[in-house]
Amino acid sequence: MLKIVVCVSGGGTNLQAILDALESGRITDTEILAVISNNPGAKALDRARDHGIPAICLSPKQYPDREAFNEAFTENLTELGPDLVVLAGFLVRIPPQMVARFSNRIINIHPSLIPSFCGVGYYGLKVHEKVLERGVKVTGATVHFVNEGMDEGPIIAQKAVEVEEGDTPEILQRRVMEQAEWILLPRAIDDIANKRIRVVDNVVRSCS
Description:
The protein is α/β, with parallel strands linked by helices. The protein has one domain (2-197): Rossmann fold (3-Layer(aba) Sandwich), CATH 3.40.50.170. It has helices at residues 13-24, 43-50, 66-80, 96-101, 125-134, 169-193, and strands spanning 2-7, 30-37, 55-57, 84-87, 106-110, 138-145, 155-162, 197-200, 203-206. It is globular, with a radius of gyration of 16 Å. The protein starts with a strand and ends with a strand.
């Protein structure tokens, strides 16, 4: 049984996709230990409580400095003891000590086709705004393992989504979620739970 902790900052639509996939059997052999948010008002915490999952708020504002927060965040995760940490719209940079402690056990969903439109400053709606400003015809989403860099870890899966005429950032964001994020993230969790993938020499390999 793969034990996961899901980290979310906002509404938790990717969390909901995980919950739906668990209930429908598209994710198997997996249990959510807790949901963590840096935002006390995050709807994701309500989604967790509604499913009987422990909902934990850990905000940098609760600590005297970022280093104290990083230590507390890492220790809280260590005490929970997950096999996998899932960043599902989590807008806090993962501290180096956590990356080291959970090496190749943290995954993230990013709303673009990495290496395009990623890195520092590219998060949430800002990604889709930049996609439209650039005028690209295809965008998408990427699930990847987390390393010390920003959106630089080994790629697990990607899915392309067409940019359509008349798109606004909000419309494009919704399409990317529906056509890519909500499909890729549950599938990646199920692949990890069922040992279909592994990381070899910083590259994700299929075990099937």
